[in-house]
Amino acid sequence: MNRPNIWSEGREILFEDNHLLVINKPAGLLVQGDATGDEPLSKKAAEYLRFKYKKPGEAFIGVAHRIDRPVSGIVVLAKTSKALSRLNEMFRDSQMTKTYWALTGKPPIPENGTLVHWLVKDTVRNVTKAYSEKHSQGLRSELHYELLGQAGNRYLLQVNPVTGRPHQIRTQLATGLSTPIVGDVKYGFIAPLPDVSIALHARQLQLQHPVTKEAMTFVAPLPDAPHWDAAREFYK
């Protein structure tokens, strides 16, 4: 059996113990399988564990949350059912701090603030619409954002979503600030990126370990893509 070629410690594998496998997901990779039939992150992770530990059968991998296919960054997978059930509860109740980096074509006005919308997902078209007033079919969605600075001819925003809705950051930035994410033609950016990703990266996640209760912080390096190069100077 060949070792899956996307994995390397410290780059794609950010952390592993008996209960968790934390991955820096490349843009373009599904987290869970869908109608396309493309191999998802969850299957690649199971293959990785099967290879590493020489398991004769399938390795358990539980998915507690997802990030969109064109988005890169942190995904926490469960290696045990105990960890999965507790992670599900933590993500459902927003018991963690999520930090994203996003590149936009123009600066937000104001440069920092809080956005609240009611989001309605169109599952047929796979798009989400944001309403500034309460909507009977909408889910209340909140995020905090701040402009970190200019990155080349783009602008780097740090975004902390309070809730976790489908396409939340993408549609709230586009609707609430008129600053669609670079490459995100679905939500109004003028042109796609060459690799068909969007410039949104799940940069950091802070949470309590679901089993040991230890406070943990994971940080994911930016992708090796030219559109992120100017943002690297903002590393702390």
Automatic annotation (TrEMBL):
Isomerase keyword on record: yes
GO term, biological process aspect, one: pseudouridine synthesis
Database matches in SUPFAM superfamilies: Pseudouridine synthase
PROSITE patterns linked: PSI_RLU
MF term (GO), any: RNA binding
Domain of life: Bacteria
Keywords per UniProt: Isomerase
Residue ranges of domain Pseudouridine synthase RsuA/RluA-like in the record: 19-174
PANTHER family per record: MITOCHONDRIAL RNA PSEUDOURIDINE SYNTHASE (PTHR21600), PSEUDOURIDYLATE SYNTHASE RPUSD4, MITOCHONDRIAL (PTHR21600:SF83)
Entry's family note: Belongs to the pseudouridine synthase RluA family.
Name by which UniProt lists this protein: 23S rRNA pseudouridine1911/1915/1917 synthase
Source organism (scientific name): Hymenobacter arizonensis
